[in-house]
Write a structure and sequence with these properties.
- The structure is a single chain.
- The longest helix is centred in the N-terminal third of the chain and has 20 residues.
- The protein starts with 10 loop residues before the first strand and ends in a 12-residue tail after the last strand.
- 9% of the residues are buried.
- 34% of the residues lie in helices and 18% in strands.
- By secondary structure, it is of the alpha+beta class.
- Among the domains are: 50 residues, no CATH class; 43 residues, no CATH class; 49 residues, His-Me finger endonuclease fold (3-Layer(aba) Sandwich).
- It has six helices and ten strands; from the N terminus they run ββββαββαααββααββ.
- Pfam families: Endonuclease_7.
- One of its GO terms (molecular function) is endonuclease activity.
C-alpha cells in the first residue's frame, strides 16, 4: 500500500519520490484542503515533461528533444549552435531566464531579415513604425517641397519632421534644421526669442583706452568714447 499522504507538522510525503518535504515545496492544487498537490515540484515537472513528450509522440509522431545541459551563466543559441555567456544574449523580460533565445549576432541577423521581408529594408521599417508613412509618401511630400529642406532650402533632406505632441508629420528637413527644432523643443516662443536675440545682440569689441577694450552691444547703448 502507498504511504499515507497526511500532512505532518506542515510537511507532506511526495507520492513519486517518497520524500517528506515542506508544503511550499509542492505544486498548488485547488482540490486539496491545504492547497497543495500530491507531488513535489521537481517530480511534478518531470511528470509534465513526460506527459508533453507522450502527447507530441502520439499527436505529431515525433520525439521531443532532450534539454541541452549548459554550465551556469551560459546559454545555447539555436541558430549558430554554440554555447555562449548570457552577456552575449539580448535581454528579454518575457523569457523566464531574462534573456533572448538567440545570441546578439543571430538576433540582429533575424531582425534584419524580418525588416527586409516585411518592409523591404530598415528605411521603410523606420518610417512605418515611427511615423505611419512609407518611402512612397516621403517622396511625394519631398516633391511638394521642391526637393529641398522646408526651412533652409538645403538639397536632399532626409529627416521626416513630426509634431511630438500629436505625432502628425509636418515636413521634411535637413539634419541641422530637424535637430534645431528639437533643441528648441518645438516651441514657437523659444524660437521667437532666439530671433530677437540674434537681431539685437551683436557684441563688438570697442577700444576705450590704449590697449584696453570693452565688449558692447547695440541694446546697451554706445560704448564710451576713447580717452584722449
Amino acid at each position: 500500500m502507498p504511504a499515507p499522504l497526511d500532512d505532518r507538522d506542515g510537511r507532506r510525503r511526495c507520492r513519486d519520490c517518497g520524500d517528506w518535504k515542506l508544503l511550499e515545496d509542492f505544486c498548488s492544487s485547488s482540490k486539496r484542503p491545504s492547497g497543495r498537490g500530491s507531488y513535489c515540484k521537481p517530480c511534478f515537472n518531470e511528470r509534465s515533461k513526460a506527459s508533453y513528450a507522450k502527447r507530441v509522440r502520439d499527436e505529431r509522431g515525433r520525439e521531443v528533444k532532450a534539454a541541452r545541459e549548459v554550465q551556469e551563466g551560459h546559454r545555447f543559441c539555436a541558430d549558430c549552435g554554440t554555447v555562449k555567456p548570457v552577456a552575449d544574449f539580448p535581454r528579454n523580460r518575457s523569457d523566464s531566464t531574462g534573456y533572448a533565445t538567440y545570441c546578439k549576432p543571430c538576433h540582429n541577423a533575424r531582425t534584419r531579415e524580418t525588416k527586409l521581408r516585411l518592409y523591404g529594408g530598415d528605411r521603410e521599417y523606420h518610417l512605418r513604425r515611427r511615423h505611419g508613412v512609407g518611402q512612397k509618401e516621403f517622396d511625394q511630400l519631398l516633391a511638394e517641397q521642391g526637393g529641398v529642406c522646408a526651412i533652409c532650402g538645403g538639397e536632399d533632406p532626409q529627416h521626416l519632421d513630426h509634431d511630438h505632441r500629436t505625432g502628425w508629420v509636418r515636413g521634411i528637413l535637413c539634419f541641422n534644421c530637424n535637430g534645431g527644432l528639437g533643441q528648441f523643443r518645438d516651441s514657437p516662443t523659444r524660437l521667437a526669442r532666439a530671433i530677437t536675440y540674434l537681431r539685437g545682440t551683436t557684441w563688438q569689441r570697442a577700444l576705450i583706452h590704449p590697449g584696453v577694450y570693452q565688449m558692447c552691444s547695440p541694446t546697451r547703448g554706445r560704448p564710451p568714447s576713447p580717452r584722449s
